[in-house]
Amino acid sequence: MTTSQAFLPFTKPTIDEETISAVAEVLRSGWLTSGPNVKALETLLSEYFGGRPVRTFNSGTCTMEIALRIAGIGPGDEVITTPNSWVATANVIIEVGATPVFVDIDPKTHNIDLNRVEAAITDRTRAIIPVHMCGLPCDMDQLYAIAEKYSLRVVEDAAQAIGSTWRGRRIGSFGDFASFSFQVNKNVMTAEGGCLVLNNDEEARLAEKYRLQGVSRSGLDGIDVDVLGGKYNMTDIAAAIGLGQMRRLEEFNTKRHQLAQHYFECFGSQFEEQTGAELPVADFTDSNWHMFHIVLPERVVRANFMQQMLDLGIGLGYHYRAIHLFTLYRERGFTDGMFPIAERIGKQIVTLPLFPAMNESDVERVVSAVKSCLQ
Ligand SMILES: *Cc1c(COP(=O)(O)O)cnc(C)c1O
């Protein structure tokens, strides 16, 4: 292997000429902000999620924050979530004035360990934000059984899970709130953006208010503001990208599956035993394979491993460092050792390249590089 091979990043968006033309058309049209393309994307997404109301936003983060606001969650309330996620998942809880309560993760799925959730519920618990990590869904039966038993709202952080399924049904097509991100690294992207799947028209109207300064309009010059909203609307430029991406979602996810499958073939059945590293759950039913992770053995220093791979022309990510160990969270009383599984995963996980434009020889190149670096 040589370093003269092209650099392989851990992810890269696929953007076709049709999408580029659609964006150019928006730019020429004179209507750049939320308009017909946003409407068209919301209609398409609503169909995709089984007819449920869907509203778009300029990030997946604000999407979750707005779901919490719609649910009326604020100061004095506790929200249960996972320490293994992008920090946004917990930040939105603090943003609305509520208190994040972490529950450790399952060492195999890296999702919140639902068997530990009940022990974390108090009389102040109002909601749970689970993450479908890498697109591998949480056990939806168990999740919603707990939510029902304790009357909790659920905001699914489905940022990574577009196209994932549970028992044959799409994530987002059932359940309570489902929040998706269209940040550039996700399976469907709009550069930046997100959408929220809601339960009814009333929630959708409220979502529109929170999205744009709390404004409601009537007639030619009727306007009122009755809730404190922000500025979270998606542009038509972004929506045009999203429409182009949605056309190819199935194709993208199929390709991700094939590449993930090839990873398993190339690592082989002896890899874990021989190296002490851990492969992800080999789920080819429900997951959309948003990312392919391996957990490095304790003997390996992740930064060194990442540097060695970089020297071979391969870029890696790490998703994610345990949230509760960030300074902001330590200042709120969280410390080392509280969630040992998330802490171990957060220190040792790496994300291998996986995106639709890759081919099987790229996978082979990554696997042989990983094997040689772990020797
Ligand atoms: C990407 C992501 C987010 C945040 O989405 P943005 O669109 O970047 O705001 C939140 N949670 C998870 C799990 C994510 O992967």
Question: How is the topology of this model organized?
Answer:
Blueprint: H1 17-29, H2 36-48, E1 54-57, H3 60-70, E2 78-81, H4 88-95, E3 99-102, H5 117-120, E4 125-129, H6 140-149, E5 153-157, E6 165-166, E7 169-170, E8 177-181, E9 194-197, H7 201-211, E10 215-218, E11 222-225, H8 236-246, H9 249-267, H10 271-275, E12 292-295, H11 302-311, H12 327-330, H13 340-348, E13 349-352, H14 360-373
Parallel strand pairs: 2-3, 2-4, 4-5, 5-8
Antiparallel strand pairs: 1-9, 6-7, 8-9, 10-11, 12-13
This protein binds pyridoxal-5'-phosphate.
Pyridoxal-5'-phosphate binds at residues 59-61, 85-86, 88-89, 131, 157, 159-160, 181, 183, 194.
Keywords: Aminotransferase, Pyridoxal phosphate, Transferase
GO molecular function, one term: transaminase activity
InterPro entries: DegT/StrS_aminotransferase, PyrdxlP-dep_Trfase, PyrdxlP-dep_Trfase_major, PyrdxlP-dep_Trfase_small
What's the CATH first level of the largest domain?
Alpha Beta
Helix share bin = 25-40%
Mean pLDDT: 97
Uncertain segments: none
Report what the structure shows.
With 375 residues, this protein is an alpha/beta fold. It is built from 14 helices and 13 strands. The strands form 4 sheets. Strands 1-9-8-5-4-2-3 form a 7-stranded mixed beta sheet, with helices on both faces. Strand 10 and strand 11 (222-225) form a beta hairpin. Helix 3 packs parallel to helix 4 (88-95) and helix 9 packs parallel to helix 14 (360-373). It is globular, with a radius of gyration of 21 Å. The structure holds pyridoxal-5'-phosphate. Pyridoxal-5'-phosphate is lined by residues 59-61, 85-86, 88-89, 131, 157, 159-160, 181, 183, 194.
